[in-house]
Amino acid sequence: MSFTATMKNQKTNNKPAGLKKKIALEKDRKAKLAGEHLKESRGDELLVMRDPYSKKDYYMSRIDAFTLQKTEYVVMYNYVPDDGSHAKPELVIMRTAIGENGDRVYYSIKDPDELEKAFVYFMRRYYGSQALESRAKNGVASGDQK
Q1: What share of the chain is helix, strand, coil (3-state, %, to 5)?
Q2: In terms of residue numbers, what domain contains 85?
Q3: For residue 95, with 0-12 CB atoms within 10 Å meaning exposed, 13-18 middle and 19 or more buried, which class applies?
Q4: pTM above threshold 0.70
Q5: Is residue 55 part of a domain?
Q6: pLDDT tens digits, residue range 54-101?
Q7: Within a 10 A sphere around the Cβ of 1, how many other Cβ atoms?
């Protein structure tokens, strides 16, 4: 599956320090439970993203998408055909929304605290899905045992 999208730079919002550091335990629990979603959606989705300023195309493989504190994020990596000569891909996390014309628009995240929150949330989802997989493989049931 292939999509064409647009990237835009996002200005940093200066928020109070207390608000920046608030990550509730409930959100952590929900992130771990959401790991099941990752296990079921392992198929790669290829996106072609065009920078509106440089007009350069970027080929990205989508790993996950999630909503955190009413903001949508997408996690991707640079797609390069595997011929053995490329370095390991790096994760790219971007804010996403539906633009005025109905197309999906991707924004770079300039605020390091926001990026860290999104990264931590994604990693908890990712490792939560791996933990569920390994428990199922090893015959360990999840949930309360009676």
Answers
A1: 30, 30, 35
A2: 2-10+22-133
A3: buried
A4: no
A5: yes
A6: 988 888 888 899 999 999 999 998 877 666 666 677 889 999 999 898
A7: 8
